[in-house]
Amino acid sequence: MILVKQKLSLKLWQTILTFFLFVGFAIAIFYFRSVLDRDGIYVTGDGQIKLYQAFALGKSEDRNSECLYRGKPQDPDYHFFPIQYPWAIFRIESPKCVWEYPPFFPWLVSRILSFLELGMGSAMRVPLIFYLCSAFLTGVLFYRTSQNFGLSIALFFSFFFSFPLLTVLDFSENSIFLLCLLGSLILFVLESNPYRFLGMGFLWGIAYAFRFEALFLGGVFGVFLLWENRKEGLMFGLGFLFPFLCLSLFHYMDSGHFLGHRFVSSVLENQNAKSHYLQRLSLLKAYLLGDSLMVGLLPFQPLYGFVLVSFFLFRKSFTSVSRTLVFSGLVCLVIIPLLVTFYAGVGYFGLRYLEIPCLLLLLGFCTLVPQKNISSWVVLFVFLGTFYFNYHSTKEGLKVLYRSSREISELQSFIEKSPEKVIHTSLYSSIWIGRSFWERSHFQIQEEAGFQKIVSKPGEQFVLIKSPKDVFISPDIPKRLFPHYINDWFPASVKVLEHRHFLNVDLYFLERLQ
């Protein structure tokens, strides 16, 4: 009786501690997001394109992918549209400009905000909500699998206070993608109903609606399921097939290709799509070990080195579940960097394609540890030792975001000097358009004739962002667009009202003369 009471008391304290840790984690994330948005929505790069798409879909009942463009009355053919590859593609037929991203994530966010009667300023919090739901489910999954409270907490923070956190602070669908796959993994690990594999495949198919790589991840996972049990693998494939066919039909009707605009733009037109194997191996090294542009997985979080070694030590304890998790994770960890052929971000921000493989590895590790009589203190010691590097990398990534938010706010303040129009001399500066996309008409102009057409009234004031001559052009951008990133043009017949050099660009507040 005393032993039962002690166990109940321990469970209670573990529950209380878990609750406060999770609430503290949630508060910290939302607080940091509010700091980033202190002077207005902070969003750059890919995230801003999805946010513009969400804004457009929120104002329309249609789920089309046409680009939002304040300058369309003056430029109906999108000749001076300021955003191109890899975020927008153009075609001859109508509509002439479409976002390449699937509309499901922006549409879902816009509908959630509409239902809650919230403005677009709250859009950046929606991915965080899904992220915390994913975190909660992962904590439950780790604990139910390991039955080790300390290990489950260590695994939780090792995964969620890491590069997935840096991803979700952008306007990213990754958290919804992760939530769908977690639902599938819970069915795989915790449920015993043989028909659960239909549900697993279906959830993996829904994940495909949000991120294209679910197609490859699901294929690898399904192959290992099939290897372990033919019936289970076939049921998984059957469950995946229905959402996949529906999405393929949608993509074909929307883009003319059953894999959608994203595949057409990012894969078929990718300059590195036919990269030499040495280039692909160098990218694999960058993803796993890092290079001059990117912090690799093992320098960011050395824990995965320990996990990989542990699989070799535990190889005699593998079950069908652990084999499927571990080998799926290992294959995806190696093959994905060889397939994507470009950096998913520089510095601390390029590991988002490895999130699911890492989750599979950690979950596989979790299924193996209880089967070995290893002291939890030893495991926790290793986790704490490696977590220092993870904490340092994550903290440095958060510092980069904070500094960037302050710099973007300063740049936005300069843009606000313009009554209406902002001129970009190249596509290089499009990553910093941010919230001004709704407030000002942005144009990318590279010749005097275009300037005369867009800024036609004498005395008209506008902001011009002049890119540097020497800029880094991502290797995944087609060469036909290189000239749009490098340009030394400057308009004639203007009066300089103010000039600043900031963020490696020259900012001008100008007034048109006669």
Describe the 3D structure:
It is a single chain. With 514 residues, this protein is α/β, with parallel strands linked by helices. It has 19 helices and 7 strands. The protein has helices at residues 2-36, 45-58, 104-115, 126-146, 149-160, 163-168, 174-190, 196-208, 214-228, 230-255, 260-268, 277-289, 297-300, 303-313, 320-340, 355-368, 376-415, 436-439, 448-454; strands spanning 88-90, 97-99, 421-424, 441-444, 461-466, 494-502, 505-512. The radius of gyration is 25 Å and the shape is globular. The mean pLDDT is 85.
Strand order of the largest sheet: 4-3-5-7-6
Question: Can you tell me the overall shape?
Answer: globular
Q: Mean pLDDT, as a whole number? A: 85
- SS field, number of helical segments: 19
Helix content: 55-70%
> Structural class, from secondary structure content?
alpha/beta
Distance between termini? 94 Å
Spans of at least 5 consecutive residues whose pLDDT stays below 50 are none
DSSP E strands, number: 7
